[in-house]
# Entry
Amino acid sequence: MKRNLYVLFSLVVLASVLLSACGAKATEAPVATEAPAATEAPAATEAPAACAPTGTEPIAFPDGGKSVTGAWSQEPDNITPYYTQMSYAIWIAQLTLVGLAEWDENGNFVPELAAEVPSADNGGVSADGLTITWKLQPCLFWSDGEPLTSADVKYTWEQVVDPANAPLSRVGYEKISSVDTPDDQTVVLHFSELYPGWQTLFTQGPNNSGSILPKHILEGQTGLESNAFIHNPNVGSGPFVITDWVPGDSMTLLPNPNFHGGRAKLDRVQIKFVPDPETALAALQTGDVDWYPDFSEGDIETVNALEPAVHLLVVPGSDFEHYFFNLGTTAGVDGKGVSDVDGFCPFKNINVRKAITLGINRQAFVDSLLSGKTTVPATQWPNSSWTNSSLTPDAYNPDEAARLLDEAGYTLGADGIREGDCDGKKTKLSFNFETTTKQIRVDIALAVQSDLAKIGVEFKPIHTPAGTFFAGYTDGGNMPLGKYDMAGYTTGFYPDPMSGVLDSYACDTIPNKDKPSGTNNYHICDPQLDELMAAVNASADPAVRKTALDAVQQHIFDQYYVVMMYARANVYGYVDRFVPAPFGFFSNLNWNAELWDVK
Amino acid sequence: MWAYIARRSIQALFTLLIITILCFILTRLSADPLAQYATNPNMSAADKEALRERLGLNQPMPVQYFRWLGLAIQGDLGISFFSKQPVGLMITQRLPNTLKLMVTAEIITILVSLFLGIISAVKQYSLLDNVITTFSFIGYSMPIFFIALGAMLIFAVKFKEWGWPYLTTGADIWDQKDPMQFIKHMILPVSCLVIISTAGYARFIRTSILEVLGQDYVRTARAKGLSNRMVLYKHALRNAALPLVTIIGLDIPYLLGGALVTESVYAWPGMGRLFWEYAQRGDFPVVLGVLLIISTAVVAFTIITDIVYTFVDPRIRLN
# Structure
């Protein structure tokens, strides 16, 4: 019998060994055997004829070289964010495949591969806003030594709009009717209609990543979403090049000898995929990793307690957590914006919406649960130059909230819950609130429940996993179906204000049985708001757009359509030896990785 | 025997079919693959609709299932919705890591359990038996994440803080071809898996041995003057091991599925993490691929266990 048991075990072990042998090997890119001398960025004034690449392979890691390891909670699906919307793909693209421009630590739009950002003053933006001209830096090279030119930009556009490829989104790119490349450094984009958000195309930011693709490698290929290069490019234009990617485990990046900004200060960057934030926290303490960018606001106190060995960095962002009312109506508004079901009747009354806003002590949980590291915003553009700075969030005022509810006809019942008449029916101010299972949301919903109970409003939180909560119409999602009373989640409209706003608030994007793909989960149909939002995108002039957007923010604020809870913040932890370069929310940590260093 | 194997294999196919249907329904109902794009301002409604169509999610559920099944029958587990990689490739990238971790843990678990189970049985109701039983149950009762994080805090974080030799958190980058590195990185995750698994096995072995020790043939063996050691190893253990074969045979397929929590805590790139990460995103080709592999292994090992049984117990005949 023993022998048989041994046979059984041997079979399992053998299977393990065989499978190990059969397992796909991590791709390894060739590396230079000797590290070339550090290079300076080619001077912008240098004549193209004198240009030559510094190397043709990533710079090998020298003995005793400077290396850092970051922990990311997820592995990127691939490296080219045209085919994924993962933040991690955008981050790795910032390290390896850069765009024409980016946002700096102060939120300014600054050139990357471009020599300057187009503007009306430098002739880069035509008077009608339909033609955008980009000038590339001279002497740009891919990491393999091939020239990086305007032809690569044109090729990138062709690939994004090519029906044979399947990018996740073509928003903006499909508005370009043609691309001219009069010389190697000039790209002229001709738009078929005004697209004020042109800054988000071919550029890298927190919500977009327009990596320029190498024509010399991908030309003639289609179905790029499955292309090996898209998944694991061994040639790049960023400060680093991926030289090793162990699936599910880690990535290794070595300096790009031809990076336009000069050789990176570090000799190696490694990324480990660590799904558990508790592990990341322990790894920061032991020095197994040097930074972790994925802490939540709820971890602020925990990370802060590790000073001085581990530093906490909280970067307030333009994402915001908000609660909102289901304003759906089966009757629609002037024949538009019809929902399948009606929302909770009392929410039609602005005084009820305002009372709920005033009845939630938002500053209290920002100070306690979020350690006072973020703010209660007034509008949907927090920490952004687009915000309407004349607006300030309403302060907590339960007395005024109670008065407003009294005025709206909702009086306290014997059970402590207000009741009133709504469209001829007795209705209690008792409703469900839906959100995800994230712990910070659970904690805040409990605080809100307690606050609203004090003004006679019964707020009943329901927490469901994100995959169910955010389900689409055809998958039975409560938000698009309009089967909710109140809901809450995080979103943000940046770096350009036109991103998503029209889809989120417009009458004709309300999801219903005739338009299941509609994205107006608020089920708001307000023709005046539609008009105001259209004005934002009717001009290419930033000043005109800002004025129009101020009016949009004022209107949403006045109507109490949403309860702005708090501006989200990115929470980083990093060890003392790691020296990141200055960064902000729009740029994020990875925008200038060539400047990272160690003490 | 061949007729038996053929009959069981046909039954197994029907079992697998039912398993895949159930798994498909549960996966599709648990998460919308497009949910993560719900609040993405860079994707228009038209983009989302186009994506839904490309992924075939606009089709009725039965059509989606049969499309997947048609490919699976041909050995093609499909393409991941998100990574766009063949699911078969993704599994072969992770499976060896899982097997290294799980097979090691299983072997150590069985060895430790045999040792503890025998001692507990032979020294029944002794102080040693009570201590083993108590600690087994403590290990069995504690959630794995608690053990895993606690072990990491003590043996990695605190040991380093105290200036003692310390273990890694698993979040460092290491050379998987270096045997010493490999062993060092296996210590904590394997220990955690052994701690939670040993109690069940040890109690099972203890009970089996106690049952056998009360049998007439054991009494006869003792009456013949055989030493306690001979009675235990030659007669009791051999017979007590029979049900153990069944337990191990049924456990082996689950090794393929990995250990979700342990792999996540120790950043081990195995099947458990693969399954969980993609299940959360509703990527049903990956989820079904992993489940199909595990289900097939369960069914196959059930048949293998039955066959092995005929070798270890001459009283059993398959027909």
The radius of gyration of chain B is 24 Å. Chain B has a mean pLDDT of 88. Chain B touches chain A through 79 residues (CB under 8 Å). Chain B has twelve helices and no strands.
